Design the sequence.
C-alpha cells in the first residue's frame, strides 16, 4: 500500500505547488498508516528533488528519461499507471495544472479510479474519503465521495497547509515500460513567458482590467508585481482585446486562481470575473468608481486613479522590503 | 469527415447559484440554461469545418429531456443531427463512458467538446473519452487547423502556449479563441425543427464520484477602505493584519 504524490517539473525544478501535493500525500499516508512516495518524471537539477525532504515523503521514484520532458498526457499517464500498479497505490495526489486534468482523466480510466479535480482542502479520511471541491466555476463548493477504492486528487493552489516533517528521502531511479507506441501529440514549438512568476504557482497575483486604458500602461502593473514577486493577470475584456496574452486571463472562462493575495486594478468585478478569483485568501481592489461591485467582495479597497495609486503602492512595498 | 461535438446543458454564466433540499440539489428555479461556453467554442469550430472540410457534425448530450431546448439551439446553430443519451449526467466518468460507448463504432474523425463544463468544472471528460476509445486527447485547444488527416493545434500551457501536430482521430477539449461563437439565425431556427434529435437509452456504466452536499461561497466581511495617500497603511495592514506579505 502507498500514497503517491506526482511531482511536476517547471523548467528543471520542482513546481512549487507540487510541495502541497507531497504534503497532502504525507498527511493522508499518516492517517492511513501507510507510506507516502513521490513520482517525478523528466530532467531535474541536482538536489531539486531533495528539496522535498521536509514534506514527509519517504521515497521519490525518478524517471530521468529526458525524452519525457514536456511529454504528452497519454504517455505520462502510462508512466504513473505503471508505478501505481507496482507500488499498490490507492491514492494519487497531484496539483491542479494544465497537465493534471488530461493526465488524470486518462489515468482514472486505466486505474478504475475516482478522479476528483479542483480540490480545495486536503480531504478528511473517515470510512470513506470525503473531499471538498470548487464547483459552478468558483461560485459554490461541493463535498463529494468516491465509489471506488482508488482515488486521484488534483489540488487547487493553497488547498493544503504546508507542514514540515523531515524524513530521510531516498531518490530511486524508476524505469518505465516501453511507451513509444502510445500515440500522442508532437510538439512543434513552444512560446512561454520567461522570467516571470507562473500564474498558477503564484502566492500573489496583480491583475489589470479595462481601467488601465491600454496595453501600453501595463508597466505599473508589472512593477507592482515585480516588487511583490507576484504573477500578472488580467480580466477577460483585456485578453479579448489582445492587450495581454490569453493565458493571463483569470475568471470563469479563464484560469481560476487561489493565491494568498489578489490585487485587482481597474476591474469592476463582474460575476464571471469573481468566479475565477474569489478563492483568493485576501483581495485588494483599486478602482476609481466607488460603486464598482468588486468592493463588495474585497477585503481592502482603494477608490482612486490607478495611475496614481499603483505607483504609490509599489513605493510603499519597496519601502517595507528595505526595512525588513 | 465526421465530427462529434459533446455539449453540456449548464446554468448561464451570470446565474446566481443556490441549492435546495438541504444543500443536496441545485436550485434551478429562475435559472436560464445554455450550451456550455467552452462547448459552444467546440461547436462553432465544428460548424466552420462543414464549409471547409465538408464535415458532418453530430451533437451529443448526456442529459434529461430538460436539455432538449439547448440541443435544438445547437442544431439551429448549424449541427446536422443530434443525439441525447437519456440519463442524468451525474459524474464525469459516467458521462465519458456514455460518450465512448456511443462513439466507439461510429468512426468519428474528431471528437470535440469544451475544456470543462461550467457547472462541475471536472475538466476530465475529454481525457477519459480518449482513454476509453484508445485515442489521444488534448486540452485546452485554442486553434485547430486540418491538413488532410493531420491537425495543427495551439494548446495553452502554463505561462504560454505550444503548437502541436497530431493525426486524426483524437479528442480535443476546446476554449477561445478557437472560433467565433455563432448565433443561430431565423433560417437555422426553422430548419432545426426538422433535424433529427435521437433519444437513446442509457448505456450501462458506473458512477465513480458522488456529490454529498453543496454550499455557496461565504461572502467576505466588509471591505476596509484606504485613501490613495494611505498606501503605507495598506501595506502595513496586508503585512500585520492579513499576514499575506
Sequence:
Amino acid at each position: 500500500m502507498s500514497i503517491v504524490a506526482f511531482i511536476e517539473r517547471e523548467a528543471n525544478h520542482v513546481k512549487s505547488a507540487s510541495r502541497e501535493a507531497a504534503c497532502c500525500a504525507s498527511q493522508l499516508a499518516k492517517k492511513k498508516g501507510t507510506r507516502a512516495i513521490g513520482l517525478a518524471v523528466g530532467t531535474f537539477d541536482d538536489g531539486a528533488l531533495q528539496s522535498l525532504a521536509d514534506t514527509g515523503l519517504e521515497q521519490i521514484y525518478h524517471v530521468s528519461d529526458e525524452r519525457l520532458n514536456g511529454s504528452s498526457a497519454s504517455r505520462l499517464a502510462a508512466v504513473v499507471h505503471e508505478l501505481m500498479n507496482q507500488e499498490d497505490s490507492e491514492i494519487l495526489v497531484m496539483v491542479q495544472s494544465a497537465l493534471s486534468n488530461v493526465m488524470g482523466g486518462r489515468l482514472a480510466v486505466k486505474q478504475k479510479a475516482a478522479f476528483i479535480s479542483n480540490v480545495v482542502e486536503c480531504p478528511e479520511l473517515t470510512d470513506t474519503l470525503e473531499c471538498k471541491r470548487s464547483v459552478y466555476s468558483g461560485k459554490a463548493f461541493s463535498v463529494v465521495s468516491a465509489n471506488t477504492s482508488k482515488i486521484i486528487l488534483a489540488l487547487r493552489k493553497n488547498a493544503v497547509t504546508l507542514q514540515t516533517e523531515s524524513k530521510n528521502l531516498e531518490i530511486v531511479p524508476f524505469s518505465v515500460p516501453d511507451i513509444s507506441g502510445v500515440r500522442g501529440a508532437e510538439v512543434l514549438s513552444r512560446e512561454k513567458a520567461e522570467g516571470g512568476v507562473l500564474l498558477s504557482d503564484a502566492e500573489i497575483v496583480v491583475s489589470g482590467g479595462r481601467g488601465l486604458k491600454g496595453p501600453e500602461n501595463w508597466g505599473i502593473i508589472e512593477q507592482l508585481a515585480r516588487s511583490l514577486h507576484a504573477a500578472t493577470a488580467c480580466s477577460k475584456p483585456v485578453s479579448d482585446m489582445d492587450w495581454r496574452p490569453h493565458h493571463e486571463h483569470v475568471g470563469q472562462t479563464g484560469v481560476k486562481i487561489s493565491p494568498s493575495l489578489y490585487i485587482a486594478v481597474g476591474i469592476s468585478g463582474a460575476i464571471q470575473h469573481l468566479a475565477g478569483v474569489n478563492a483568493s485568501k485576501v483581495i485588494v481592489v483599486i478602482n476609481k468608481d466607488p460603486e464598482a461591485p468588486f468592493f463588495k467582495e474585497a477585503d481592502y479597497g482603494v477608490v482612486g486613479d490607478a495611475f496614481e495609486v499603483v505607483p504609490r503602492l509599489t513605493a510603499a512595498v519597496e519601502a517595507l522590503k528595505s526595512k525588513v | 469527415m465526421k465530427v462529434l461535438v459533446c455539449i453540456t446543458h449548464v446554468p448561464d454564466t451570470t446565474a446566481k447559484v443556490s441549492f435546495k433540499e438541504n444543500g443536496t440539489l441545485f436550485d434551478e428555479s429562475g435559472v436560464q440554461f445554455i450550451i456550455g461556453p467552452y462547448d459552444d467554442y467546440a461547436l462553432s469550430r465544428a460548424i466552420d469545418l462543414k464549409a471547409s472540410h465538408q464535415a458532418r457534425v453530430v451533437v451529443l448530450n448526456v442529459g434529461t429531456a430538460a436539455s432538449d431546448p439547448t440541443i435544438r439551439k445547437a442544431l439551429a446553430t448549424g449541427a446536422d443531427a443530434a443525439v441525447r443519451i437519456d440519463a442524468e449526467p451525474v459524474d464525469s466518468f459516467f458521462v465519458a463512458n456514455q460518450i465512448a460507448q456511443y462513439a466507439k463504432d461510429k468512426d468519428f474523425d474528431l471528437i470535440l467538446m469544451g475544456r470543462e463544463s461550467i457547472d462541475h468544472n471536472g475538466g476530465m471528460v475529454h481525457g477519459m473519452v480518449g482513454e476509453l476509445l484508445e485515442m489521444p486527447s488534448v486540452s485546452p485547444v485554442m486553434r485547430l487547423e486540418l491538413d488532410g488527416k493531420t491537425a495543427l493545434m495551439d494548446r495553452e500551457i502554463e505561462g504560454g502556449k505550444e503548437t502541436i501536430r497530431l493525426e486524426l482521430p483524437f479528442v480535443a477539449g476546446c476554449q477561445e479563441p478557437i472560433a467565433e461563437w455563432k448565433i443561430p439565425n431565423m433560417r437555422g431556427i426553422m430548419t432545426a425543427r426538422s433535424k433529427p434529435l435521437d433519444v437513446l437509452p442509457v448505456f450501462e456504466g458506473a458512477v465513480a464520484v458522488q456529490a454529498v452536499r453543496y454550499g455557496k461561497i461565504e461572502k467576505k466581511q466588509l471591505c476596509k477602505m484606504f485613501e490613495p495617500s494611505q498606501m503605507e497603511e495598506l501595506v502595513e495592514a496586508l503585512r500585520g493584519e492579513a499576514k499575506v506579505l
Chain B has a mean pLDDT of 94. Residues 136 and 170 of chain B are 5 Å apart (CA to CA). Chain B has six helices and 15 strands.
